[in-house]
């Protein structure tokens, strides 16, 4: 009788561990599906001009209870992602998030998990690779990769005090450090041509 109970407890523990592992493994794929759905709705709201009042230094659009400031397009790694207005652990599981700064102040820092559908392929960006940020007000900014390097998680000052107008970061593959990609803005004439092309 005791052996049977121990065996049943072991089986239940194994099933629980397996369920937790499957849930964790499915998180990146569920996040990518949610981000894709959000991106579609965000683009529709931008097209319709449904911008919330500016609560901070950037206008937002609310979708499913979360505020978004726009979306990123990174052709070299085939990514188009919505960007939330601020960063929390919960929000990082749904979308890339603004960690610091703004487009207008030319010091915006965006973070995301290294999920394959989020920033998992940032390491593949080559110098000069293009990125476009479209704000919820319809304004478009174009950037190119200037440099990439790794910072420790404790290097907050270094992360936010760079000379670049846009920075993306994510965890390294071992989750110990932060892959940091710095972007330079394209000259305004090039940005205007990009807007006309879109």
Describe the overall structure.
The protein is of the alpha+beta class and 198 residues long. The chain contains 4 helices and 9 strands. Strands 1, 2, 3, 4, 5, 6, 7, 8 and 9 form a 9-stranded mixed sheet that branches. Residues 19-23 and 190-198 have low confidence and may be disordered.
Write the topology of this structure:
Elements: H1 2-48, E1 61-63, E2 66-74, E3 79-84, H2 89-92, E4 97-100, E5 108-111, E6 130-135, E7 140-151, H3 156-160, E8 166-171, E9 178-185, H4 188-197
Parallel strand pairs: 5-8
Antiparallel strand pairs: 1-2, 2-3, 2-6, 4-5, 6-7, 7-9, 8-9
Summarize the structure.
With 198 residues, the protein is α+β, with helices and mostly antiparallel strands. It has helices at residues 2-48, 89-92, 156-160, 188-197; strands spanning 61-63, 66-74, 79-84, 97-100, 108-111, 130-135, 140-151, 166-171, 178-185.
